[in-house]
Amino acid sequence: MSDHKKGLYSRDGGKGKRVRSGRNAGHQGRKGDVEKRERSSNRRYGPSRPRYREERMERRNNEPDLPEGIDIKDLDPLVLQDLQVLAMDNADAVAKHMITAIDLLEDDPKLALRHARAAKERAGRVGVAREVNGIVAYRAGEWKEALAELRAARRISGGPGMLAVMADCERGLGRPEKAIELGRSEEARLLDQDSHRELAIVVAGARLDMDQAESAVVTLERLDPQESDASESGVRLNYAYADALLQAGRVDDARRWFEVVLQADALETTDAASRLAALDEGHSSNAAE
């Protein structure tokens, strides 16, 4: 399996789409609060509720079919460890639905979301299952569902969770001010460097949503963009910085930073080349006039 896909299955992350438990951040949730919520939830949704078993069987009968040949060992060992709280057959099915969901993300996000939901329905109290559902819903553009699932994952597992994704969901729901609030939260201080950069990029985007281009520039400058930084998160940071500079009317500075990105972006993960071409075309048009 490629490193890219392994990163998607791993708590330790990869390619900006991490499946990671907050416990790795060294921060535990409030166990008593979680237990109280679970007891309350059980009264409404648990096995004693009328038709619970019938509805569960109906949901499982409506699950999407799993392809042949899935190896659950493709999942990170820590994720598999989390699934050990489930019955063996159920854990196996959850793992396979999670793997299939990630595999389908690029080609068929709607079907990927059906698999992620199936995993969540089978393992609703397992934080990583809720997290995967949230990430896949986010990629499918289901902002409200993604936000709810990622919040649930944080309640179960603790830690800063997927703050950048949650903040971007707030933007998708038309609430950029909420995204900015997440950027100022105590949990944001617990993020590693790459996650902190991702959150700053989203917060800068929220500033742009609110027509606050200069504030977006300042947000990104706090992370000290470096021209020599060719890491994936560094390239993304520099690209966001170039875009914010352009939105703020600092065209020459923006062109320089787009050139920096173009030089470092060997895998062409950004559209820096087309952005530069557009700037050059605009410059030529203005000169002709």
What is the secondary structure topology, with strand pairs?
Elements: H1 3-9, H2 31-45, H3 52-61, H4 77-82, H5 88-104, H6 109-122, H7 127-139, H8 143-157, H9 163-172, H10 176-183, H11 193-209, H12 213-221, H13 232-247, H14 251-264, H15 272-288
InterPro entries: TPR-like_helical_dom_sf (IPR011990)
Region (Disordered): 1-71
Protein name: Tetratricopeptide repeat protein
Please give a quick description of this structure.
It comes from Corynebacterium tapiri. InterPro entries: TPR-like_helical_dom_sf (IPR011990). The protein is mostly helical and 289 residues long.
Top keywords for this entry?
mainly alpha, elongated, 289 residues, disordered N terminus, Serine Threonine Protein Phosphatase 5, Tetratricopeptide repeat, single chain
Could you explain how this protein is built, in words?
The chain has 289 residues and is an all-alpha fold. It has two domains: 1-42 and 55-159, no CATH class; 162-289, Tetratricopeptide repeat domain (Serine Threonine Protein Phosphatase 5, Tetratricopeptide repeat, Alpha Horseshoe), CATH 1.25.40. It has 15 helices and no strands. The protein has helices spanning 3-9, 31-45, 52-61, 77-82, 88-104, 109-122, 127-139, 143-157, 163-172, 176-183, 193-209, 213-221, 232-247, 251-264, 272-288. The N and C termini lie far apart (55 Å).
